[in-house]
Amino acid sequence: MDRTVKYASLATLIIPIAILTIFFIQVFIDGSKHIDLGFILGSPSYDPGETGILPVIIGSIYIVGLSSIISFLLGLGLSIYIVEFVENERIRDLVYFVIDMLAGVPSVVYGLVGLGFIGYVLGAGRSILTGAITMSFLILPLTVVATLEAFRSIPESLKMTAYSLGASRQEVVTNLLIPLGLSRALTGSILAVARALGEAAPILVISGLLFTKTIPLSLFDEFTVLPLYIFNLVTRPQPIYRELASAVIIVLIAIFMLVSITSIYFRLRYSYRLYEV
Amino acid sequence: MVNIVIKTVGLTVYYGGRKVLEDVNVDIFENSISAVIGPSGTGKSSFLRSLNRLNDLIPGAKVVGEVYYRGKNIYDEGVNVYLIRTRIGMVFQRPTIFPMSIYENVAFGLRINNVKDEDVIYKRVRNALVMAALWDEVKDRLEESAYNLSTGQQQRLCLARTLAIEPDVLLLDEPTSYLDPKSTKKIEDVLLKLKNSYTIIIVTHSLSQARRISDYVLVFMPDDDNVGKLIEYGPSPQVLNSPVDPKTREYVEGLIG
What we know:
The structure holds two protein chains of two kinds. By secondary structure, chain A is mainly α. Chain A has helices spanning about 1-30, 35-40, 55-85, 90-105, 105-120, 130-140, 140-150, 155-165, 170-190, 190-200, 200-205, 225-235, 240-270. Chain A is built from 13 helices and no strands. The longest helix of chain A is centred in the first third of the chain and has 32 residues, at about 55-85. Helix content of chain B is about 35%, strand content about 25%. Chain B has a domain at about 5-95 and about 165-250: P-loop containing nucleotide triphosphate hydrolases (Rossmann fold). Chain B is α/β, with parallel strands linked by helices. The interface of A and B includes residues 163, 165 and 274 of A.
């Protein structure tokens, strides 16, 4: 019996890893031959041999960068408020509940609300700005969890010490919580960045653009993102497009790994020990 | 005539509606060490935290009565709590070290209190470390993490951090209970020196520590409802050698507590 449980649980570990590995190998075999400087720095073309993805990469960088910054700042403010300023347990529980609810809303709904409200009511149109703000709300539950965890990890005794030295609430936030919690909050938010990088549905609703040759420059330009372009490529029948999709997936994974490595670097560089004292 | 630095009148403390300390009336004299003794859970720490309004920060805590610091009730409306806490400093039971350098730990209170001049900060950090008898041990490694210090050194660092903001009164909540005898002695020697310029109130679980360093002793005991009360207080030799209250006698003879 014990052995059955052991091997069954081992299988649940090995099967997903094996599937992922096979998937990555397949993607790499298909896609790597298409990746060169022309592909990275070129524009999409109707000739599959000539095609490039620079406008799409720029679109993704815009969306991920902006939404991560907006969402992180929102998460930071919200967490500080919850940790330091909300004294009523019920209100705190209500905030947690709302955050859980937000995490459960399908991403396409975010896209519809974003397009309707930011795009049409506020007049930002089908632009990068609309996409980035919508995306920042979509990943907000993840950044809030990360920043909350970072601030909660700071021992109560250290806060008491700061207060005993004459600190006000605001000074405890600016001189203790933020300097001590920031690096942990940043590295914890990496999941949110990954989500922003990988989401296609809300951008499909907002941008609607599967293909563009123009590099987006201003916040009000039209744009598309890597996951959406992958979607575009795989819907075509010719096998060459499947290979190109694999190439874009490799680029997507490479960008994500770059972000991860940067985050790990920051964690190691600015890590410190916090003792529960 | 000796100056009264702190005077409590009818000081009563509740946590979440439960009374933990009742009707404490006591005078604390300038440039003396007052030891607060008694069994665990008799409100000794609550008493200490009422004196610098740190109880304000504990959810559900309520303080009734008056605490006069140099003649002014610190619970009056409009009192600047932050200023009070810089006049009445505190050191906790376990060293509460910030994850920063040794230097920045001591400078923390100064930066909080808007001291901007780095020369002034350096001088006050140095003075505080000298007073806490830690300077010679750390002067060559001020930029190192404070976690590299031993527990005894960390506690003296906490003391230095409090001294750096130049308070008038020092509250110490069992500061040596996690320290070995050697480190304990160092802290006690420092306190005996500091007495000349500070008023010190120390909660201690150790009667011998009270004997060694205190001028006055406050004895806290639970009553039948488990509410802490100040049952006896006076000059140390008197309270520790010939106590009036029978409960104090049992406690100092080691029969209870």
